[in-house]
Design brief:
Low-confidence stretches: none
Order of helices and strands: EHEHHEHHEHHH
Radius of gyration: 16 Å
Mean pLDDT: 94
Distance between the termini: 28 Å
Largest sheet: 4 strands, parallel
Shape: globular
Structural class: alpha/beta
Strand content: 5-15%
Number of strands: 4
């Protein structure tokens, strides 16, 4: 029903990336309920001798998140063809395209988002249930920033509690 598309790299970019990423991935898995739902993480340009970002945080991911996630790796030699045209180490359009092209073709929805998001469904406990009856189209949701101190207080493995706290 839903393919969530994410990208990143194992480079510690941003404040407490590993914790925010684990919290987000665990919460995303928590709101997906259809057996066809998936989380596609494109690890873009992580050095070959490093694990992918999801592999680096595997011990902080819930079993549910680990089962729903597929990791697609775009190695540095692929990024080389773009390096002369950009200073960026991760190319978002390329990474997202890799995931979309490999998403489950039976899924009706693609949710393109980032690894620091927590979805708080208002009408039900499941993002899958909400999306099931939506008309075809492009949907956009507002982003509400969560203070770093709140991120710090969350238990990575308690996705349901995190979603309830953010809702409150």
């Amino acid at each position: 029903m839903i393919s969530i598309v994410l990208y990143g790299r194992n480079d510690s970019y941003g404040y407490n990336l590993h914790k925010r990423g684990a919290l987000s991935l665990n919460c995303m898995a928590e709101v997906l309920t259809d057996p066809a739902d998936e989380i596609l993480f494109v690890d873009y340009n992580t050095p070959d001798d490093f694990p992918t970002f999801p592999e680096a945080i595997r011990d902080t991911l819930t079993e549910r998140a680990r089962k729903m996630m597929r990791i697609l790796r775009v190695r540095p030699h692929i990024h080389e063809r773009y390096r002369s045209r950009t200073h960026l180490k991760a190319l978002e359009p390329v990474a997202r395209n890799v995931a979309v092209r490999r998403s489950n073709p039976s899924n009706r929805w693609i949710l393109s988002t980032n690894t620091d998001m927590i979805f708080v469904p208002q009408r039900s406990g499941s993002l899958t249930e909400i999306a099931r009856d939506l008309a075809a189209g492009f949907y956009h949701a507002p982003r509400i920033e969560i203070p770093e101190t709140l991120w710090e207080s969350f238990d990575r493995l308690a996705a349901g509690n995190i979603i309830r706290t953010v809702r409150e």
